[in-house]
Design brief:
By secondary structure, the chain is mainly alpha-helical. It contains ten helices and no strands. It has helices spanning 5-11, 14-18, 25-34, 38-49, 53-62, 65-70, 77-97, 100-108, 119-122, 126-140. It is globular.
Length: 145
């Protein structure tokens, strides 16, 4: 199962935030390569953690505080990839759990199948995000985790 790009785009704030038409995975890839707008970082983090100190910490784990203060419009490629990963696992969790509150609980709670790590923390790296995606797909298809 391939996650539809429109769900990831929604987590990033939609086309109005991205300031371009994004319909396909290739469109999303190009947007990430150009650098996502700063607002996409805010939207993705708010979708997962709302606001507050934990959300700020997550934001600064994606883009260090000093770097974020210097940014004016767009994130770097590496930062954009981190934001897209967070958006992708958030969208997938929302699709699997079919309820935002349940998806949120999954993302912010330690998961035994992930070595008692939180999916939101694992999403900081590509390999960590892959582990989360693998677990979510197993849950979606009722496979042993």
């Amino acid at each position: 199962m391939m996650l539809k790009p429109d769900k990831v785009i929604s987590v990033l704030g939609g086309e109005s935030t991205l300031r371009q038409r994004v319909r396909t995975v290739d469109d999303l890839r190009r947007a990430v390569e150009r650098g996502l707008p700063l607002e996409a970082l805010d939207r993705a983090v708010r979708r997962v953690l709302g606001s507050g100190p934990e959300a700020t910490a997550l934001k600064h784990s994606i883009v260090p505080k000093a770097t974020l203060q210097r940014r004016r419009r767009r994130l770097s490629l590496v930062e954009s990839e981190r934001v897209e990963r967070l958006a992708r696992i958030t969208a997938l969790a929302e699709e699997v759990w079919e309820e935002p509150a349940a998806a949120h609980e999954f993302l912010v709670s330690p998961q035994p199948q992930l070595g008692d790590e939180r999916p939101v923390d694992l999403a900081r790296t590509d390999l960590g995000a892959r582990r989360v995606e693998e677990l979510l797909y197993k849950l979606e298809y009722s496979l042993p985790a």
